[in-house]
Amino acid sequence: MMWQCKEMEMKSNRRRPAQAGITLIEMLVVVTIIALFAALVAPSMLKKSDTARVTAAKTQINSFMTALGAYKLDTGVFPTTEQGLQALRVKPANVNSWQGPYLPKEIPLDPWGNPYIYKFPGEHGDEPDIISLGADGQPGGEGINEDITSWKN
User: Fold this and answer.
1) CA–CA separation, 89 vs 86, rounded Å?
2) Which pLDDT belongs to residue 112?
3) Superfamily of the domain at 53-149
4) 116: left (phi over 0), alpha (psi -120 to 50) or beta
5) 83 confidence band (pLDDT: 50, 70, 90)
6) Which of 10, 56, 89, 112 is the most exposed place for a label (fewest CB within 10 A)?
7) In this structure, are residues 135 and 112 in contact, taking their beta carbons and an 8 Å threshold?
8) Per-residue pLDDT for 115 more than 90?
9) pLDDT category, 46, cuts 50, 70, 90?
10) What's the predicted TM-score (pTM) here?
């Protein structure tokens, strides 16, 4: 009998509505704290993201310049503007001493999703010009929109 009494008492405890919970005010306080935290942290995280993209573009341009140096050692000349960076992956017509591919993967887009601009002969010395137009995809600009080039790299 005692056992049945305790069992009924336990069942009645289970059926009791929960008194503990989160009030609307507590929820609003938590959401406000999260929003303030996001407002303070997000700008610095975005700046780091922008810096990482600029660094990635500079690294890719350096990689292209290294591959172009190997291409020139084998062929005696840099690829023409028309042949472009694709000459580092696929043998251009009328180039007999091509020993490529000079890059292990396909030519990537810049970190903002735009193709790199390749010019040879370049306007800045004896080497080709390689340009990423930055975040805005337009020539010139400042900050994150500034062009990233092979001759200033």
Assistant:
1) 5
2) 92
3) Glycoprotein, Type 4 Pilin (3.30.700.10)
4) beta
5) very high
6) 10
7) yes
8) yes
9) low
10) 0.68
Q: How many CB atoms lie within 10 A of CB 150?
A: 23
**CA count, 13 A, side-chain hemisphere, 113:** 1
Strands 129-132 and 148-149: antiparallel
pLDDT of residue 126: 87
Q: How far apart are CA 52 and CA 60, in angstroms?
A: 12
Rounded CA-CA distance 62/58 in Å is 6
**H or E segment at 62?**
helix 24-75
From residue 87, alpha-carbon distances to 27, 123, 153 in Å are 59, 20, 22
Stronger pLDDT, 42 or 9, i.e. the higher one:
42
Of residues 152 and 68, the one with the higher pLDDT is 68
Domain spans of the chain, in order of start: 53-149
With tokens 């997000």, the residue in question is 42
Phi, psi of 117, rounded to the nearest 5 degrees: -95, 130
Dihedral of alpha carbons 44, 48, 49, 53, sign:
positive
- In the sheet that holds 117-119, the strands lie side by side as 117-119, 129-132, 148-149
